[in-house]
Design a protein that fits this description.
This protein has 488 residues and is of the alpha/beta class. It has a domain of 274 residues: Alpha-Beta Complex (Amidase signature (AS) enzymes). Helix content is 38%, strand content 12%. It has an eight-stranded mixed beta sheet. It has a three-stranded mixed beta sheet with strand order 1-3-2, sandwiched between helices. A hairpin with a 2-residue loop joins strand 10 and strand 11. Helix 5 runs parallel beside helix 6 and helix 9 crosses helix 11. The longest helix is centred in the last third of the chain and has 21 residues. The radius of gyration is 21 Å and the shape is globular. It starts with 5 loop residues before the first helix and ends in a 16-residue tail after the last helix. It binds glutamine. The site of glutamine (GLN) has 13 residues, from loops.
Length: 488
């Protein structure tokens, strides 16, 4: 059961080969047996999951089912879930039980999907390794000494370890694509505004976007069909019409023009990782695509630009955690100032404090023009680079990360080298574009991700390219040894 894709589970449930309660039970048993290796879940409510599965079975029996009815899905612990603790990987929200569902969660619930559990993540989604979580790091199923990537590391590890058929993540600067690459799964960060942000704990509001993480592009398309769409309660959500993201998966790649930015293949890219990417590009060429060399001249500025804008927005978003309204409160405060400062000192971890300090500094009256305003101007130049390229090509391709997953602890005391991990993913968020990562090979047993970037609202095209690639390759079907044990 646990080796089935979402597409196969959908079919099996429809044909009554098995029930949603059976599928959900199977995954809950695997979480029980195997998650001590990965630490990929923060919260699992078995009884609630089985009750939802029972409800889904009734819908399946009465003929009122949707595509995802009865499919268990794990959600990053950044999505507010009514009555289920939503920690955002932080001590600050360790005791926070939201009174409402994020729009994404509510959409999955109305489709009849089963909420399997809440997954581990970097604290407030700040990180590239899942090591900043208050609940301890998640681990990479391909080698548990390695990080799974971050910040949606728990979602990636849960899918790669076959503890969930699919999961949700959020991506502010790469947090869906980078862990997808490290764990050998497929992840899509949609166009900014394609998926509602209501009820997602805010990190950097002009960059945050939620998306699906699964084994294949086809499975991501199933999830995106449920997630995407306008939300009147999120003023940044787009009114552009959605598509049936499954409908064009099989379209031919004949005539597709793929741009290869020289900046993504130069210094800093691990040679073996680059080799996997070149092989993947040959496969796309064999299917009729043309490869076009091009340039994104402002690429070198993406890391400094992002690491001004994201912390600036984070510093304002995280001002709400003050010990008064919700979440952690320090013991016996002597006065209001003591309440604020000790609550924040004790409730936030080191990386979050670093971002708040950088962001507050960048926004301070004397420095605003020099840092924040300048960063916004460069953001425009970075976006224009992409717009010029998309006059000549349909899709841009390159590596998702400079190399495969690194060892736990290898970068945790070196924030700059951790930030360099994001060199190929950040620009996509700064420009609001859709991007995805899909498995494209292995380097010494560690998965490598191919990144595809498209025009605004071209999710269907990206999923189509990825699906055609996956029809001709089997990287996305490989299973890590650590996932082979357990029940079933
Ligand atoms: N690694 C990046 C950061 O730490 C991106 C995180 C994300 O996308 N949530 O900011």
């Amino acid at each position: 059961m646990h080796t089935k894709s979402v597409a196969q589970l959908v079919k099996g449930l429809r044909e009554r080969q098995f029930s949603s309660v059976e599928v959900t039970r199977a995954y809950l048993d695997r979480i029980d047996a195997l998650d001590s290796q990965y630490n990929s879940f923060i919260t699992v409510d078995e009884a609630a999951a089985l009750a939802a599965a029972g409800g889904a079975d009734e819908r399946l029996a009465s003929g009122t089912a949707n595509a995802l009815t009865g499919i268990p899905i794990a959600h990053k612990d950044i999505f507010c879930t009514d009555g289920v603790r939503t920690s955002c990987g932080s001590r600050m929200l360790d005791n926070f039980v939201p009174p409402y569902d994020a729009t994404v969660i509510q959409r999955f619930k109305s489709a009849g999907a089963v909420l399997l559990g809440k997954t581990n993540m970097d604290e407030f989604a700040m990180g590239s390794s899942n090591e900043s979580s208050f609940y301890g790091p998640a681990r990479n199923p391909w080698n548990t000494d390695l990080v799974p990537g971050g910040s949606s590391g728990g979602s990636a590890a849960a899918v790669a370890g076959l503890l969930a058929p699919a999961a949700t993540g959020t991506d502010t600067g790469g947090s869906i694509r980078q862990p997808a690459a490290f764990c050998g799964i497929t992840g899509l960060k949609p166009t900014y505004g394609r998926v509602s942000r209501l009820g997602i704990v805010a990190f950097a509001s002009s960059l945050d976007q939620a998306g699906p993480m699964a084994h294949s592009a086809e499975d991501c398309a199933f999830l995106l069909n449920t997630m995407a769409g306008h939300d009147p309660l999120d003023s940044t959500s787009s009114t552009t019409a959605t598509e049936d993201y499954c409908a064009t998966l099989g379209d031919s790649l004949e005539g597709l023009r793929i741009g290869l930015p020289t900046e993504y293949f130069g210094e800093g890219l691990d040679a073996a990782t680059g080799g996997c990417i070149n092989n993947a590009l040959k496969e796309l060429e064999a299917q009729g695509a043309t490869l076009v060399e091009m340039s994104l001249p402002h690429s070198a500025l993406t890391i400094p630009t992002y690491y001004i804008i994201a912390p600036a927005e984070a510093s304002t978003n995280l001002a709400r955690f003050d010990g008064v309204r919700y979440g952690y409160r320090c013991e016996n405060p002597v006065d209001l100032h003591d309440l604020y400062s000790r609550t924040r000192q004790e409730g936030f971890g080191e990386e979050v404090k670093r971002r708040i300090l950088v962001g507050t500094y960048a926004l301070s009256a004397g420095y605003y023009d020099a840092y924040y305003k300048k960063a916004q101007q460069i953001r425009r130049l970075i976006t224009q680079d992409f717009m010029h390229c998309f006059e000549q090509v349909d899709v841009i391709a390159g590596p998702t990360t400079p190399g495969p997953a690194f060892a736990l602890g290898a970068k945790s005391n070196d924030p700059i080298s951790m930030y360099l991990e994001d060199v190929y993913t950040l620009a996509v968020n700064l420009a609001g574009l859709p991007g995805m990562s899909l498995p494209a090979g292995f380097v010494e047993g560690k998965p490598v991700g191919l990144q595809l970037i498209g025009r605004h609202f071209s999710e269907a095209r990206l999923l189509n390219v990825a699906h055609r690639f996956q029809q001709a390759t089997d990287w996305h079907l490989r299973t890590p040894d650590s996932a082979k044990g357990g029940t079933l």
